[in-house]
Amino acid sequence: MTHPATVHVPLGDRAYDVRIGPGLIDRAGAEIAPLLRRPRVAIVTDDTVAGLHLSRLQAALTAQGIASEALCLPSGEGTKSWPHLTACVEWLLDQRIERRDIVVAFGGGVIGDLVGFAAAILRRGVRFVQIPTTLLAQVDSSVGGKTGINSPHGKNLIGAFHQPSLVLADIAVLDTLSPRDFLAGYGEVAKYGLLGDAGFFEWLEANAPRLRDDMAARQHAVAHSVAMKAGIVTRDETEQGERALLNLGHTFGHALESATGYSSRLLHGEGVAIGCALAFDLSARMGLCSQEAPSRVLEHLRQMGMPAAIRDIPGEMPDDAALIRLMGQDKKVVDGRLRFVLARGIGEAFVSDDVQPDTLEQVLRDAR
Ligand code: GLY
């Protein structure tokens, strides 16, 4: 029996716990009950998660005398948009959710970001609990309070910082993910080792291939990732500095996702994985780290069966100039200058706006 691990996020009057372990959905009623002023919650989820896990969550709440209503939104990135945000907020108002109530975001990153944003703006802010059901959401998007929706201009361009009151990461639900979705989330796990913890990356090189089958190893990987994120968010909640390191691989990744129309050709975590490989390649070409670092990144992603280069993305890709233009929509751009997370070695990332266009073009060209 694997007991839940707890990572505390010490943000003063907005502090909260992230609980990580198998079977937490079945204990959700007991975990959430201490937060409630009245025994009722509103759950927002998507069609896929509802079909697989909603009745179990509602039964766990009922067992603790907590009534619940659920709204099911369509699965997929398209849900992170104004029309579904409107539908969600109006439904919560219709349910008469008050400021002292709790909204439960039950799903992957799309649901967590959308519902967190709805909670941030509903009655100028209601509390919410994240129950993330994908590896990507458990190690990244459910922790740290970034919420929001996409715009036709780019991803996550509309949103707010709004911290959850509790995160319940039930790592057993990850068994229902397709191998591809599981691996895409793994891109974000590897990112933590690459950005700030060489020892963790070494552990992943040795242990990541058994994360699908070994619950204790999976719990360690998720808890360690969450602990690293909690540390960064506590030091820099609104991304004035250090938090930007969490975007390792994202400048490249977001451009690749945009170029593929946010479609199933490239999942977010796959874009991050390719982006990490490109960021290390760029760092080596700029003389910031030895060639051994990008070789190790590439080898590990290949060992995991993940895409690691632009040539691994199926279908036609736009030319280098178009990709570089897409990078210009990145939220890290300052005064029109592209900013990259680069590295002096595995686990030693930093932010730089000192990248020469011809070096960048070389990196993109060689990854095709
Ligand atoms: N996903 C990056 C962050 O939370 O800052």
Question: How would you describe the overall organization of this protein?
Answer:
The protein has 368 residues and is α/β, with parallel strands linked by helices. It has two domains: 5-176, Rossmann fold, CATH 3.40.50; 195-367, Dehydroquinate synthase-like, alpha domain (Up-down Bundle), CATH 1.20.1090. Helices cover 44% and strands 17% of the residues. α9 (250-259) crosses α12 (320-327). The protein is globular, with a radius of gyration of 20 Å. The N and C termini lie far apart (46 Å). 50% of the residues are buried. Glycine is lined by residues 140, 144, 146, 243, 246.
Can I get a quick summary?
The protein is of the alpha/beta class and 368 residues long. The protein is 44% helix and 17% strand. It folds into 2 domains: 5-176, 3-Layer(aba) Sandwich (Rossmann fold); 195-367, Dehydroquinate synthase-like - alpha domain (Dehydroquinate synthase-like, alpha domain, Up-down Bundle), CATH 1.20.1090.
